Amino acid sequence: MSENPNETKLVNFAMANGTRRKIINFLANGCRSTGEIGEIIGKETLDFHLRILQQAGLIELEEETVKLSEYGKSFLKNKTEKVEEKTVEFSQAKPIEIARIRQLSPCMADSSRLRVSANMTPPLGGILKLLEPLFPRSNYSDRKDSLIIQKGEIIITIYGSGKVSIRMIKNENEAKEELESLKSIINEAIAKGVAPAPREKVKVDLTEVYKYLPQTNCGKCGEQGCYSFAIKLMARQVALDRCTLLKEPEYTGNQERLQVLADYI
After folding, report:
1. InterPro entries of this UniProt entry (predicted)?
2. How does pLDDT run across 28-72, given as a tens digit for each residue?
3. Structural domain of residue 177, as residue ranges?
4. For residue 99, what are the CA distances in angstroms to 32, 57, 119, 148?
5. Do 67 and 33 lie in a common domain?
6. Pick from 126, 130, 139: which is nearest to 192 by CA?
7. What is the pTM for the complete model shown?
8. What are phi and psi of 163, to 5 degrees?
9. Shortest CA distance to 182 belongs to which of 134, 254, 232, 214?
């Protein structure tokens, strides 16, 4: 498979989904039957995910047998080597400090809660992605170079640049406590000098995405209804801003929740 922009986009789309990454990793040790893969990821969406991986040139499908293509093997090997390189860099990371809170403003989802901005020094940069396993419900976004952490209603976003954003905070004292906890967890990992073991990505359920959509089936997004839109959103075939109703004041909270979920997909 040649490296042209269109093919690269297709591979990036295929590997942006946690279920498809699980399939690729499952095939790392050899070919598997479709039945075996179905037991791992569920049979309802099996054909859909296999078709996308096949179109990206990452797998070969013969009757009921699935295996990595030569391109898929090379892709997986390159990804592993990059992780190993970053692991070496992790040992040279310096402890962080959280600068004072720069801004407090009402949260869009709930005006009784606050949105907080702060700075982290030095910026975590290349090791930010490696910190993902430290937090039970978190996800690193390559597109935004950010680590999103969800703790109940509180949503924390750390950027590679050093910026830290916290949403749904009750007051300034709670913000300071969360920032101190964040610093402590990260610095403890840095002190050990070894990157945390990778873990499986948080899986977003289709019904959870559908729950926060307007559920009016207005069709303005170009889909037959909100459920169809949710399916396309899960497959990264549509962007969240296609749902224009979410921009209306009554759905502000829904939009903020969906933005977080979209980053977990």
Report:
1. 4Fe-4S_dom, ACDS_complex_subunit, ArsR-like_HTH, HTH_ArsR_DNA-bd_dom, WH-like_DNA-bd_sf, WH_DNA-bd_sf
2. 888 999 998 988 888 888 888 898 899 888 999 988 899 999 988
3. 90-192
4. 51, 46, 5, 19
5. yes
6. 130
7. 0.51
8. -70, 140
9. 134
